[in-house]
């Protein structure tokens, strides 16, 4: 083979090698990412596709009410720093609506912070005085677990007052009777019911203060407050001194409390008490001394306290 042919073949193989290298280099490069055209978004179409936002409900109407910013002691004039005006949806009918209505006024009882003010806050009288009506009297009776119906009495219950007379020298035979029927329970110890305006007669702070005072003094006196008709208050006093009292709870099915709040409780309670009452003189069984005169005419009796005797005829 001639040298010329050899040179031609070498040039051919060199060109082929260059082409092969170039082609391999092109194949080894990563593919360029193809840009995907983003679709054109129509603003009006997007707004139409969105769900409509529901309209907010209208704000309920609110009314001003005067509320105590801090606690106020009894018999202390109210100042502008003690009160504020709140906007509430539900406002009591008797509530004050401006601070000018309460400035300078004082309450006969302490008022707790957060209390909404009304005219009844400035009425004088304690809890029991605000729980009875003009024809009633509040009378307290000392009780224990036996007298007070096993300690299960609650304000608003109705009880019958029973009197037990022991057998004594002046009372040969023991006896019992209903002295006062259907008396409303106002309080049991420091627990009270509702006042005449339908609100609690005592606040939680008042009850707590009274309990703390009783615990500090060590007094464990248990009492029950009863609403007694004015005409029968003295009868309860006499019964408490004559013998032993018991309180008999009446059934709630009688609806006596509902009738009381409806104003249906009339003077029938007083009439029934007078009709059913045995006289203390009948229960005491005072012995009658002396016999009738021989002629059959009744002898005159002279009674001095618990002693009775026949009159001595004068010649």
From TrEMBL:
Residues 192-219 are annotated as: Disordered. This is Flp pilus assembly protein CpaB. It comes from the Bacteria. Residues 63-123 form the SAF domain. It comes from Pseudomonas farsensis. InterPro entries: Pilus_assmbl_Flp-typ_CpaB, RcpC_dom, SAF. Transmembrane segments: none annotated. SMART domains: SAF (SM00858).
